[in-house]
Amino acid sequence: MKIEARIQRHPVLPVLPDSWVKFTFNGREMVGRTGEMVSSAVFAGGEHIFGHHHKDGAAQGIFCANGQCSQCTLIINGVPLKSCIVPVEDGMVVQSVEGLPVLGELDSSSVKSPESIETDVLIIGAGPSGMAAAKELVSSGFNVILVDDKDRLGGKLVLQTHKFFGSEEDCRAGVRGTKIAEILAEELRELPGVDIWMNSIVLAVFSDGTLGVRKPEGYKIVRPRQLLVAAGAREKSFPFPGCTLPGVYGAGAFQTLVNRDQIRCSERLFILGGGNVGLIGAYHALQAGMTVVGLAEGMERCGGYKVHADKIVRMGVPVYTRHTILAAHGDENLESVTIAGIDENFNPIPGTERNYKVDTLLIAVGLSSVNEFHSKALKFGIPSMLTGDAEEIAEASAAMFGGRICGRKIAFSLRGEPVEIPGDWLEKAEVLKSPGGPVAEYIDSTVKEGVFPVIHCFQEIPCNPCMTVCPQGLITTDGHPVMGLPEYTDGCIGCRKCVAVCPGLAITLVDYRKNSKLPTVTIPWELGDWVLEKGQIVTVTEWEGLSLGSGTVVSLKNAPGYPSTMLLDIEVPENIANRVAGVRIQNPEVTDSEEFVPDIPIDDDSIVCRCERVTAGEIRKILREGVRDMNELKARTRAGFGACGGKTCKTLISRIVRAEGINPDEITDFTERPLFAETRLGYFCGREEE
Q1: b/e for 214-253, b at 16 or more Cβ within 10 A?
Q2: What is the pLDDT of residue 1?
Q3: Distance from C-alpha of 298 to C-alpha of 326, rounded to nearest angstrom
Q4: CA nearest to 452, candidates 500, 396, 512, 397
Q5: Averaged over 671-688, what is the pLDDT?
Q6: 310: closest CA among 340, 282, 339?
Q7: Which of 440, 424, 436, 442 is nearest to 462 (CA)?
Q8: Which tens digit of pLDDT belongs to each residue from 373-428?
């Protein structure tokens, strides 16, 4: 049996078991792992084009892989469905969507009413904030229904192979996101009073105080005393010529393919966006053995944590600040991207264009909160709260602590008592949301004897594992126990625990004791033991990727007590030892641009509405005619009319409105769709299989 595009070894994740089912895609026999989504199985089989749009014949592929858009729609056993939320089954017949899908007839006989259920709290979203809130509520004696559209608990935690920042005490800093998901899920399942509904979608909030939920076994009506929305966020899109080509998709979709489904989905990729999502996506690609050609960020510096940016440039990934994507090129698949420098008004600078041959472009330009359920609940008088990314975009560590606070508030509210929150909880929650402070100046260490850690961390971020792990208590900050720049005081015993635990891979250990002329530098390593070997000559780099020269690999061993983290010992000349922060694994030539730069289509041709293929030019034309009612714009252009319900184009249309100088107060917003996700009519009448 041929297994295509599967990751055969990974430095952090255990390889998934060989449990396969057979299905067909457009008549071709394929295999998928038991339980994985149809979209992933098709993608792993080498098919990245999922169909062609009925309007202009444009090729369609995945974009979000999270059930938010409709780019991955396929005909599955005769029904058009979002393939990223449908598990593959043995014998499935899957077909691409060519033009408009044909709907079958509905038999209206044997209609039955859905089951109605009451609960104290309905929580939408089983990510870090939803699970933390559920734990707090059931511990307080309340019944909870926890609903999530995925097949496992954890939300985005199940995609995050990196070690977490934040507080070790409050959010398990220093532990990998995948492991935190397992810990939280196990703790939650052991508690009575929580009913967990996986593979289930909240479809609607109704004016009678109920919510409709689509479960695998049928449609249910839930009446909660309190609603808590912890549905996370969806990725923002970014319009440019070629933005809908198969091969252009969100960084979250990439993490889903690579870290959840272990699919080698790219050979050469480029990334747009230097926030934490884009930076971590680049690192995950390197871990999976892919080539990261570069990353473009529009601001003066990346918006994500500096340690995330530093660790990828140390490995050889160029980061182009004050740059943007001009266009993606290709016939039916992405073949190259063109970037350019931008001026202070974010306009491309002529003559700065560069083109790169890639097969994947990851869009990581921000997230939008999924808060529609909350606003509709408040409109209908249902008590509702927000937590996690549904409330405010922040790190998962903040989401965990925020969910805990939200659960406490709801518990007191349901008891009719004044809310009591421990005094330090709110302060900790704000600290964990910190996006990172200013970058401090580097001060070169002049010590040339003994053994000591060198901390390559120059930005205040919420993080304290290095301080809590040191058995001698030698790493501290001036003030706050979580925020602040860590500083080392003398007395190191060379245990190397700080090197192993650091989430930012920003601590090395320099040992002059054996050989003062060729000291040994210990570097944290998360790329597997097959990348380097003893005696190999490697290029060593300083904290921001500048080459310092060569070093010799002495050893590469597992860090005791820190799964999937290795300690790389390198012998280097004493004049560079204190500055060594990493090893370059990508040769510079693999990130070179091409000499030829294709012509760039005008911006008006950029697709804004993916579902209906509506361009920015069509939107501008209607706005310039004086239209201010988005429902009229929708009727005339079909923007927002598609299967995703306007989830991806609404924010882009708002950007165009602002760019046209139109006062947002003049705009009448879209009328909200009654259902959050398209659903077969059979669910509502008890015939969910039809």
Answers
A1: bbeebbbbbebbbbbbbbbbbbbbbbbbbbbbbbbbbbbb
A2: 33
A3: 12
A4: 512
A5: 77
A6: 282
A7: 436
A8: 999 999 999 999 999 999 998 888 889 889 999 999 999 999 998 888 887 888 88
pLDDT of 107 > 80? The answer is: no
Burial 501-531 (b: 16+ CB within 10 A, else e): bbbbbbbbbbbbeeeeeebbbbbbbbbbeeb
Residue 136 and residue 612: Cα distance in Å, rounded? Answer: 43
Q: Can you say how many angstroms the Cα of residue 361 is from the centroid of all Cα atoms in its chain?
A: 15
The answer to whether 32 and 38 have CB atoms below 8 angstroms apart is yes
Q: What's the rounded Cα separation, in Å, for the pair 262 and 502?
A: 25
Q: List the beta strands (DSSP E) in 148-273.
A: 194-197, 201-205, 211-215, 218-229, 233-235, 248-250, 268-272
Q: Is 148 helix (H, G, I), strand (E, B) or coil?
A: coil
**Which residues of 11-154 form beta strands (DSSP E)?**
20-25, 28-33, 51-52, 59-60, 73-76, 79-82, 93-95, 97-98, 115-124, 144-147
DSSP run (H or E) holding 476: strand 475-476
Strand 507-511 versus strand 451-455 pairing type: antiparallel
pLDDT computed for residue 429 by the predictor: 83
Please state, in angstroms and rounded to a whole number, the distance separating the CA atoms of residues 632 and 625: 12
CA distance 476 to 463: 11
The separation between CA 577 and the C-alpha centre of its own chain, rounded to angstroms, equals: 35
Supply the mean pLDDT for the chain. 90
User: pTM for the complete prediction?
Assistant: 0.87
Question: Is 111 buried (19+), middle (13-18) or exposed (0-12) by CB count in 10 A?
Answer: exposed
* CA nearest neighbour of 36 among 267, 257, 217: 257
Residue whose structure tokens are 């509702």: 384
Residue position matching structure tokens 């996506």? 281
Over residues 668-673, the mean pLDDT reads 86
H/E stretch holding 291: strand 291-297
Q: Which of 430, 432, 507 minimizes the C-alpha distance to 470?
A: 507
In angstroms, rounded to a whole number, what is the distance separating the alpha carbons of residues 161 and 178?
Answer: 6
Mark 281-295 as b/e (b = at least 16 C-beta within 10 Å).
bbbbbbbbbbbbbbb
Residue at 154: amino acid letter: G
Q: Which residues, 6+ apart, have CB-to-CB distance to 640 below 8 Å?
A: 609, 630, 633, 634, 646, 649, 650, 653, 670
Q: Which helix (H) or strand (E) holds 557?
A: strand 547-558
Q: HEC states along 378-430?
A: HHCCCCEEECHHHCCCCCHHHHHHHHHHHHHHHHHHHCCCCCCCCCCHHHHHH
* Six token digits for residue 27: 């008549």
Domains of the chain: 1-103 (3.10.20.440), 115-233+369-432 (3.50.50.60), 237-365 (3.50.50.60), 451-588 (no CATH), 615-690 (no CATH)
CA end-to-end span of the chain:
33
Cα–Cα distance measured from residue 366 to residue 4, given in angstroms and rounded to the nearest whole number: 32
Dihedral Cα 548, 552, 554, 560, nearest 10 deg: 30
CA angle 340–345–347, rounded 5-degree value: 30
Question: Can you tell me the distance from the alpha carbon of 269 to that of 591, in angstroms, rounded to the nearest whole number?
Answer: 10
Tokens 């076994």 correspond to what residue?
A: 217
Three-state secondary-structure class, residue 202: strand
Percent share of the chain, pLDDT over 70? 97
CA dist., res. 564 & res. 132, Å (int): 26
